[in-house]
Amino acid sequence: MLVGMVVLGSVRRPLLTLTTLAPEELRDLVTVAHHYGADPGRWKDRLVGARVALIFTAPSTRTRSSFWSTAVQLGCHTLHFGASDLQVTTGETWADTGMVLAHHLDAAVVRTNGPQIELEALASELPATINAVTHDEHPTQAIADACALLEVARNGGLIGAPERMQTQNW
């Protein structure tokens, strides 16, 4: 979901990390995301006409398609950038890229698989920037995980025999 476009308090700001959110802001963000997941149709066209860039300089299937699908459901226009579409490959800084994009976009969902500082530079110019993964963090995945746990809790807990549960080593 385009959770970074949710106004936190009275200021629109980037969602780069969960560590800068107050506990009540994180709770509110997870609540909104959970409500969206439970009934996406209820949110149809809430952001009609918003211009959202999907900037993916690293491979992605689920994250990219999830954000695209959500943006379309919300009524947004999407613009897609891959690694070869950006001038950062020729030496332009992420801040310069953000400055250019800020004139044309309302928000950007960005997956770099690079250092967090790149995303921070972009977000300094384009405030509604959502971290779709950097080396340091994947906050939207953490929000999705929290929504899944909330759903499990609301449905009476885990189902299945605990002795059959497995831990994945990534």
TrEMBL record:
Any idea where the Aspartate/ornithine carbamoyltransferase carbamoyl-P binding domain is? 13-150
Question: Could you confirm whether the keyword Transferase appears in this record?
Answer: yes
**UniProt keyword list:** Transferase
Statement: the UniProt record of this protein carries the keyword Transferase = yes
- Could you state a single Gene Ontology molecular function term? amino acid binding
Q: Known Pfam families for this protein?
A: OTCace_N
Question: Which GO BP terms sit in this record?
Answer: citrulline biosynthetic process; L-arginine biosynthetic process via ornithine
**InterPro entries per the record?**
Asp/Orn_carbamoyltranf_P-bd (IPR006132), Asp/Orn_carbamoylTrfase (IPR006130), Asp/Orn_carbamoylTrfase_sf (IPR036901)
Q: What is this protein called?
A: Aspartate/ornithine carbamoyltransferase, carbamoyl-P binding domain
